Amino acid sequence: MTATPAPHPARFLAILSLLWVGAPTPVMATTHPGQAELVREVARDTGKRPQALNALLDGATMQQSILDAISRPAEAKPWKDYRPIFLTDKRINDGIAFYREHRALLEQVGRQYGVAPQYIVAIVGVETSYGRNTGKYKVLDALVTLGLYYPPRAKFFREQLKELLEMPDNHLAGPLDTLTGSYAGAQGWGQFMPTSIRDFAVDADQDGRIDLQNSLPDIFASVANYFAKHGWVDGGPVAARAQPDAAARPITVKDATPQWPLEQLEAWGYAPLQSLPPAQPTSLQTLQGPNGPEYWFTFQNFYVITRYNRSPLYAMAVDQLAGAIAAGVGQVDAAR
């Protein structure tokens, strides 16, 4: 048998080179759709190691219960059904006790930021029942589920997931993969989303960490700072009942932005039930109450509460809970 001559070394290397170029580039397997691109962005923006980011995301789980929860928010209820969720005797009485227990700190923060303390209390009351229920879901699971598996709001929640992955360790209450919160990925007593932690959370106790789960100074100051940065008017009105006449002009609004001077709404047939400055910028909300439509003038501070949660039902619940808490604290003080 005649031996086959060995190829020339240079030709052999050329063949290997062609084979290598033609081979497909290995692709790292990922657990979630869009994970590879997200990891590239975070690594590029922060210098964090892709391997560590992938390990975090690989450990997160898409949860159907989260997709189910976001499809039935409480804010879809009419006001007559929404109000009783938050304006209960227990929540009001617990808020009064909470205010009195933490009065010195609340009033110090209120003076610093120009936000009435009862509204700080009402926010943590509506959001987490004064810190008793901050959420059972892993924040990472929630934001992976909504950012990578929920097309209707994927843009918003992917931004929150990216911010969470980029967040410095001292802006979190603990290791990122152990944080728990709401089904939407909100954290702490005030239920801050990652971008809100970035933009508005405060290290009020100056311990080098923003802790919205365990530090009351950080919790109170962060809520107050959120309101202040969105334009809260110290001492300004929030909402006031309006009485339409028989010829009142129907008014539909897209959001709670004050659009008209109060006197314009009066000219359209809506009378205030209390004395208010006629030039006060206002809007009008129509809510379905237990006895039919309720009409409310709403002002800049109402709009600010809707920056926390865009539902006018939420803002009205916070305002009424805050009013009930302030009244209760006043009654206790008067009785002493």
Automatic annotation (TrEMBL):
**Transglycosylase SLT domain: from which residue to which, for each copy?**
37-322
Q: Where are the transmembrane segments?
A: none
Question: Per its UniProt record, what Pfam families does this chain match?
Answer: SLT_2 (PF13406)
Cite the entry's keywords alphabetically: Signal
Q: Where is the active site?
A: E127
- Name a biological process GO annotation: peptidoglycan catabolic process
**Is this entry keyworded Signal?**
yes
NCBIfam families in UniProt? MltB
What name goes with this protein? Lytic murein transglycosylase B
Natural source organism: Rhodanobacter glycinis
Q: What lineage, starting at the top, does this entry show?
A: Bacteria, Pseudomonadati, Pseudomonadota, Gammaproteobacteria, Lysobacterales
